[in-house]
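can u pls check wat happens w/ adenosine monophosphate
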Amino acid sequence: MGLDQQHWSEECGVVGLAGINGAGELAALALHALQHRGQESAGVSVSDGHTVHTHREMGLVADIFTEPVVKSLGGNFSLGHVRYSTTGSSLVENAQPLQVTCHRGAIALAHNGNLVNAHTLKREMETDGSIFTTSSDTEVFVHLVARSKADSFEDAIAEAVQRVEGAYSLAALTRDKLIAVRDPNGFRPMCIGRFQDSYIVASESCAFDIIGATYLRDIAPGEMVVLDGDGLTSRQVMQPAKPSQCVFEHIYFSRPDSTVFGQSVDAIRRKCGAILGRESHVDADFVCAVPDSSNTAALGYAQATGLPFELALIRNHYVGRTFISPAQKVRDMSVRIKFNTVQNIMQGKRVVLIDDSVVRGTTMRKLVKVIKAAGAKEVHLRIASPPVTHPCYYGIDTPVRNELIASSHTVEEICTYLRADSLQYLSLDGLMEATGEREKYCAACFDGNYPVPFELDISQEIVESSNEILGVGSPDGP
Ligand code: AMP
């Protein structure tokens, strides 16, 4: 997370390997599979048993890890990270892993998540004389670990995590160890795989597949695993708290070919689509996904309703996710750049358009306009998750509350704004039915039940003028 309040949100991917020849190259390879978790910057730290070395840059994995760079990553321990943050904090000093040398030696840290008490800890440590050089909350971990009097890095990390609150799947590389720990609520995913005679940890199992590793299990909430090249040791460093796995990982964020929280993302997404079909019948000619994030849910919807599935909306893969553009204007433009219709399929048809989620409504409003312009007779929107009414403080990038269209508008109002013929969202019960494990999930973005309290200064958003979002007065607006 960025400690600048404007930029508090971040989504990331982490991978770590221990005791494996070519660990640096393998981490860089695995980061390709995690690229969807962050496209702003990437980095890999390596150790040959003596020296820790980090290469991190702004940009995409394929552009950063060129052959000469990969060749420079010699070592048999590695830690890789991809980062995505919202506006402003796109600085290389915030790229991870963050490597420092403290009294115990060199350490590189990377994490996925969002610490809810980072501001307080930072202020406390600054008052005490600490100097922070980034606006990333990973640095809070760095300082806590460096200040600890504990004998080993493992113990220092075990001590540090007692002070932080919120969501984190953290990995650290030392000279001769890879240490990974998940927060006691288990907000963000992190799993262990088997690779050759050793182990790998990663945010998602798709990072294992790319290098030929096999999924073993998740790191448990509050568990620390230490990979020293000879094997894996585990210890429970915190008592598990209320299970709070992020349901948005299944809705949107993770790849469908991953096992996340011990479950197939594909299977849950398909079920979301099928349940949505059951909950929101409409007479139509075909089902179409907003590619790619909604493909699986749309398939589930089509299979459950018996409607044909058509590839009527085509995505340009060479532009980034629309959400990533910081300024609204750029976001609007990129929707046009990103999607186009297959006109002869749309012409005169009643279309069910499936999207995984509606956040601000920007993407959908544009898409409906484009689809109608392609000659569709009716556009029925079906959203494979409930209305997003609350911001996330645990690491998924959702905008402040007054920018969430469903925070202050009824489904009917949103439908009018989106210029659709009908709109229905998956119910929260339907979503939880799809997971099959209601009690294990955090759904705060849909119901406002935040499992871990957060500092007031990161929640200071007021539902202001709803007209701001709806662009009232400009029905044909952007
Ligand atoms: P919006 O245009 O603001 O309504 O954004 C909704 C679109 O953004 C959907 O098509 C989602 O696939 C995608 N989306 C949802 N959540 C996120 C997120 N946290 N980060 C990036 N994209 C997202």
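The longest strand covers residues 105-115.
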